[in-house]
């Protein structure tokens, strides 16, 4: 058996060990060409179509991302503008409310001052009226007392009312003059 293996080794040599026989190369090339034609005819168009669809989807996604980024920036600018307007409007409303509050306080103060003045004037009129009523009452009482005193001093009843009135008036005038002097000294 060793002889058979040794004989086989001697027959195969040189380039035949590296290269397959020519008919194997031919049939391998024919099969490879058929496979390449089938792949080129059926598989490659589908692969290219799928790749084109994916590229279009990627481009569309990138465009949508750019659009979303632009929309987001526009929304941020719009939000900032709305916030700025809201702050300005709040400031205006605050100033208007302060002005209205000041006007209301001033009106209430003026009304209260007017009411206080009216009450004060009413009280002064009432005090003056009461003072005059007291003076009249006091005059008549003092007059009666003066007449009674004069009657007792003179011993006669004063029948003349004009004379009685003059005596009382003179007495009261003297009393008022004395009171005025006392008040001036204070």
- pLDDT < 50 stretches: none
Strand content: under 5%
Would you count the extended β strands for me? 0
Mean pLDDT, rounded to whole units?
Answer: 84
Gross morphology: rod-shaped
**Overall SS class:** mainly alpha
Task: Give the helix proportion (percent range).
Answer: over 70%
What gyration radius follows from the Cα positions, in whole Å?
66 Å
End-to-end distance: 167 Å
Provide a count of the helices.
Answer: 3
Order of helices and strands: HHH
The major pleated sheet works out as: none
Any chance you could write out the topology, listing elements then pairs?
Layout: H1 2-11, H2 22-154, H3 161-185
Helix pairs in contact: 2-3
Could you walk me through the main structural features you see in this protein, from its secondary elements to its overall organization?
This protein is mainly α. Helix content is about 90%, strand content about 0%. It contains 3 helices and no strands. It is rod-shaped.
Give a quick rundown of the structure.
This protein is mainly α and 186 residues long. It is built from 3 helices and no strands.
Notable traits:
single chain; 186 residues; mainly alpha; 3 helices; 90% helix; rod-shaped
